[in-house]
Amino acid sequence: MLFRRLSVLTSTRILPWALALALPVSVAAETAGSEGEKTPETMVAALAEDESVEDVEQSEPRVKEPGAKSGSAKKPPTEDVASTPKPASQTPNKVAPNIDLKDVAPPPKPSPNTDSASVTKPAQPAAEAKVSETTPTEDSEVRPGEEPVTAGTENLTPVPKPAESFTLLGNEILPGTSTRLAWSPGIQIAGLSQPTPILVVNGANAGPTLCLTGAIHGDELNGIEIIRRTMYDLDPEKLSGRVVGVPIVNLPGFQQGSRYLPDRRDLNRHFPGSPDGSLADRIAYSLFENIIRRCNLLVDIHTGSLKRTNLPQLRADMNNPDVATLTQGFDRMAVVHSSGSSGMLRNAAVEAGITTVTMEAGESHRIQEHQIEAGVNSLTSLMERQGMISRMFVWSDPEPVYYDSDWIRAQHGGILFSDVELGARVSEGEILGYVADPITNAQYPIRSSSNGRVIGMAVDQVVMAGFAAYHIGTEAEIPGE
Ligand SMILES: [Zn+2]
Questions:
Q1: For the Succinylglutamate desuccinylase/Aspartoacylase catalytic domain, which residue ranges apply (predicted)?
Q2: Are 466 and 458 in contact (CB under 8 A)?
């Protein structure tokens, strides 16, 4: 469904903006020609937005009784969640080899159909992976049922509970090991049956299962690297809990540099999916049933879309106490309240009892070192806060910054030139940039609506009137205080 009906109140102002966002422009074009007369209802292309504009704007307001909401902030985040395996438990067919994730992997072999409906057949993908000779531990000698010998040298936290085996995609991953599996949504169309790598680190000690998903939009690259770095630095012997990374969920989109699936659908509008729906529904379903349901905590990593860039930030439903608590572990992240939209992985996962936030970092099509570092640091901070890892040096408590936010839209079409940079602190009325009309030479300033910080903005480009150009965050109360 690329197109849907959208009622427009004052069509002339809003329509060009819709057009600017719409990818296949053609359809709505003729309706735009009206010289100011009202068009009660207009067909426009569905807005291909992430959580960038509409979802934040249309978000249900944050409930202003933080004490009640996130009083749970004090509850120790780890243990209890940890041992509660999520509903869809799976039966392992074989033990996954312990491999050092830093090793170069052989190209993945086609994996068996991992559709959750069918029990996975004995899988070979990970088995083919070379068992690392350089792995510091000899985990491959730990047999199922045998208690893994946890190094008594840990002088960390309260007595860690030894972990159990973890079963994913038909593989048993022993405690204290890491491995690389392959997920294939089992959609037998050329290019779609290609297996997607899944990285798993099962810590030696019990703890929560944290999942990281990247590139649900295939052109959003920073998350892929954030997940790679985060996971490759984990030492299974020192980890409490598990980390499951899906660096590239939308592999076909990634290969084509496209945000979408090959059928032009936005995968992040189809969760939790369905086994007999559209292509997007099926892929979403397979991911959700096979992997997402195995998680306690989920961070879905995105970037700005449509030539917009985001300061590293979380989108989180602050009305959900568990989610609000989770955000407190992310260091130096802007946290923007957003209740999200139906079909998003974040919403579907929260509904399934998995505490989830979206992380946004930078812009699409780019690898941005700064943004990646911020993402990795923040996830490391989260894992520490969750009791999963222990950092050698801890400077202070994590410091997320909470924002209420507003999008400022261009009132005129033309070429946008920004005077401010991402992250800038701005005051009300300050000029953020100009839209220059290349035909008339007119210049229209865009001003900040409030005192705050530029937490997201459009890169310089041609814009239509109504284009959401600047996302201004104003510091909000810290939940629980
Ligand atoms: Zn995205």
A1: 206-380
A2: no
How far away, in angstroms, is 224 Cα from ligand 1 center?
12
Q: What is the distance between the alpha carbons of residues 226 and 244, in angstroms, rounded to a whole number?
A: 13
Instruction: Give me the helices (H) in 278-320, please.
Output: 279-290
Average per-residue pLDDT in the chain?
77
- Ligand 1 center to 366 CA (angstroms): 13
Report the Cα–Cα distance between both ends of the chain, in Å, rounded. 44
Residues 6+ apart with CB under 8 A from 396: none
CA of 220 to the centre of ligand 1 (A): 6
Q: How far apart are CA 400 and CA 328, in angstroms?
A: 6
Q: Give the whole-angstrom CA distance, residue 360 versus residue 278.
A: 27
Evaluate whether 205 touches 163 at the Cβ level (below 8 Å).
Answer: yes
Q: How many angstroms separate the alpha carbon of residue 217 from the centre of ligand 1? A: 5
196 CA distance to ligand 1 middle (Å): 18
List of domains in the chain: 1-47 (no CATH), 66-147+160-399 (3.40.630.10), 402-481 (2.40.50.100)
Ligand 1 center to residue 364 CA distance, Å?
Answer: 8
Lowest mean pLDDT among 126-130, 217-221, 450-454: 126-130
Compute, in angstroms, the gap from residue 94 CA to the centroid of ligand 1: 34
Please return the burial class of 40, using the count of CB atoms within 10 Å of its CB with bins 0-12, 13-18 and 19+: exposed
Q: Residue 258 C-alpha to ligand 1 middle, in angstroms?
A: 11
Distance 270 CA to ligand 1 centre (A): 13
Reply yes or no on whether the pLDDT at 428 is more than 80: yes
What DSSP state is assigned to residue 177?
E
The Cα 285–Cα 275 span in angstroms is 6
Mean pLDDT of 51-75: 56
pTM of the model: 0.74
State in Å: Cα 38 to ligand 1 middle.
34
Retrieve residue 64's tokens: 């202003």
